[in-house]
Write a structure and sequence with these properties.
By secondary structure, this protein is an alpha/beta fold. It contains 11 helices and 14 strands. α1 packs parallel to α11.
Length: 275
């Protein structure tokens, strides 16, 4: 019996226009009414999920709701958006990682739940677009300010043209993964998280808090940053539009994000098994 469904947002719950289709909302409501907890599990920061959470009406349906954000690095209780778990980067981490951006025409961007902090180069089109997707403001700061501890940094991103980012990943990933968790979450962004943190670890922490067993969890996603939560959840479902690595990691596959894939997965795997 499935008791919790973790759902990715971009490329999964959201269609290509960044909207939630009616069928997805209806299936989510059916799941909640059946006693299943719905948890948005996304790389987005807090500001990037608030309008969608309100649109889904989950606050009214579940007074004890939770979301997993920043690819597993922060967990919020949705009743008052209280932060119940978070991991942060140190000033030494920021100084070390900044050096990897040198020599590339890319942005080095630090993320908390409210802002994108850009250091150095003028914001690229990719940075501007990504910040717009998650309703975050871009704030230009110096490396010195970034390291002073005033801003609690949850996630660090390198953003640029997909061709440049492919080279960046090829040339730096092995070194970066010695000290951090890293993933090319979109063709234009390489995300860095504190070592050992990902959507899977975030989901595991929340499940433990709620007393929900691994075999009672379902996860739906489309990207490489969903692989760890696929590995943790007993029921893992990849979107048809997902990456090849994500589809390989998942046990099951559903329709794409333009054709109600989330709704179909919930009804097929969760609601049929919840009786």
């Amino acid at each position: 019996m499935i008791k919790l469904i973790a759902i990715d947002m971009d490329g999964t719950l959201l269609n290509e226009k960044k909207h939630i289709d009616k069928a997805q909302k209806e299936a989510i409501h059916e799941a909640v009414e059946a006693g299943i907890k719905i948890v948005l599990c996304t790389g987005r920061p807090l500001y990037g999920i608030l309008p969608f959470y309100e649109e889904l009406g989950l606050s009214e349906l579940d007074s004890e709701g939770y979301v997993i954000l920043n690819n597993g690095c922060s967990i919020h209780k949705t009743k008052d958006w209280e932060l119940i778990d978070q991991v942060n980067f140190t000033s030494d981490d920021i100084d070390y990682l900044h050096k990897f951006s040198e020599g590339y025409d890319i942005n080095f961007t630090l993320v908390n739940d409210y802002y994108y902090f850009n250091i150095g180069r003028k914001p690229t089109d990719e940075l501007i677009t990504d910040a717009g997707f998650v309703f975050s403001d871009i704030t230009n700061i110096s490396l010195k300010e970034a390291k002073n501890g005033k801003h609690k940094i949850i996630k660090i991103m390198f953003l640029g043209n997909p061709n440049i980012m492919a080279d960046f990943q090829k040339e730096n990933e092995n070194i970066l993964k010695n000290k951090y968790s890293g993933v090319l979450s979109q063709p234009y962004v390489y995300e860095i998280l504190p070592k050992g943190n990902n959507k899977g670890t975030g989901l595991k922490k929340l499940a433990k808090k709620l007393g929900i067993k691994q075999e009672e969890i379902m996860a739906i996603g489309d990207g490489n940053n969903d692989i760890e939560m696929f590995e943790y959840a007993n029921y893992s479902v990849a979107m048809e539009n997902g990456t090849e690595l994500a589809k390989k990691a998942a046990k099951y596959q559903t329709d794409n994000n333009e054709n109600d894939g989330v709704a179909k997965a919930i009804r097929k795997y969760a609601l049929n098994n919840s009786n």
